[in-house]
Structures
1.
Amino acid sequence: MRTTYRMRAGRFLGILAAGLIILGVAAIVWAFGLPDVVVSVFLTLGGLVVLGGLWILVWPPVVAKLRDRDIEVRGVRTTWTDITQVGRVETTHGEAIVLRTKQRDHTVLLPVGWLPPGRATQLETALRDRLNAAHGYTIWDGTAPDDDDRAE
């Protein structure tokens, strides 16, 4: 099973706004009576930027893909058995979810501000659940084991 987490779409409204500004410049250039080639260049450029802005608002970039055997964060794959810890840290860019691995210099950060509201805690819970499953851990429900459930 694969779960995909995407960036917050609102981060990319500036691209759409820039395209609309370029289209506005095309209208001003047309109103001043500049050659049609100049107007068509601004119209084409503005239209392409608006289309790109709409595209990225509908399908924001992928931040993380959680699979059964590994996790892919911004294009870098790491197996669940290589991850030792999931937590939150404060960075210079705000709060981030951190994945600590067995390799000393291979810590993966996921800035919380990149995710839509409410998805950060959902991602953190999913990360811990998959990490526990990969290492064979279960959550103890507080009950005593049965007599036939012997330690290995």
Note: The longest strand covers residues 83-91.
2.
Amino acid sequence: MRPIALAATTAAALAAFAAPAAAEITRVGSETSPIASAVVVPAGYDMIYVSGITPPVTNEGAPEGTPREFGDTRTQTIGVLNRIKAILETQGATLGDVVMMRVLLVGDPALDGKMDFAGMMEGYRQFFANAEQPNKPARITSQVAALVAPGMMVEIEVQAAVKRN
């Protein structure tokens, strides 16, 4: 009888020190909004911080340092999010793991220097808050005076959370 009691005591002691299963990420906000009002990441997740990513050149023949070289805001947003997607994949994550996003937009000369929020949203919705990838990050979008290179109108930084193994 002693071996059974010892085994039961050992199992109970080990269970007390075992790591609890990680809770799920909670995304707070309106069902109809394309962004979350807040995202709660519980213990048990690793964070991935992706630096601000700028757009690739999409039109090699365009004059250097012009918006035509990188495309309009929609095109630049798609290019940036594809770059972020590739970076996250190298870390075993997806865009569905993004919990926070910061979007910087330069005013579009074609819109009298105002940011093209609608164009950014057209690109954003191809990657977030859709049937294929419904997860929505918390997000800010701000207009800035300029980015690192002339012609660039979009820079995006993200944080992603991946459940620890």
Note: Residues 10-19 have pLDDT under 50 and may be disordered.
3.
Amino acid sequence: MEYRAITGENFYLIEMKNTCKFILENKIEDDLKNLLKINNILETVSESNFSKKFNTINKRLKSLTDNLKKQIIDTDLASARFVNLYSILCNERFILEFLEEVVKEKYDNYDYYIKESNFSNYIETKSEQSKVIESWTVEGKKKMLVKVKNFLTEGGFLERTSEGYKIIKPIVDSSVIDEIKENGNKKILNIMFY
């Protein structure tokens, strides 16, 4: 998995749920893009907005088994967020490594708070380790850190506080965990359960 600047992507939980529901109810296998557009499943206002959302969601869908697609629709909100974040982490190395190298490490050391300096240190370290990240503009790096904060907050792993962010562990339906253990990416699951 390579590093990618995903500054234009969002969490898209509602769109993922709507797309999964549409796929499962209509047994869609081919021509997904066209069918989503015709039925306005992604609720977009322009062609470019549709293309951006579709490309992001289609990439994430490939990480989900049919069972996880069903669970993201039927499960509780915390578990649906977990499944959606899992699909993001399956595709986005930068966010996955932040969860592993910063959140997990702090949690293992009984430090449950992330400060702005932790985000800054992470991007500096990654810039030293990767020519791809080093080549990102200053503004691009800032936007990527905003995405890390947003995705991990919306995914249920961070909570905004006056001092920064508090690390929290989401409570997830055991059937979601079992499905990922049996048919998904166990390495990513292990990182998510620091």
Note: The mean pLDDT is 95.
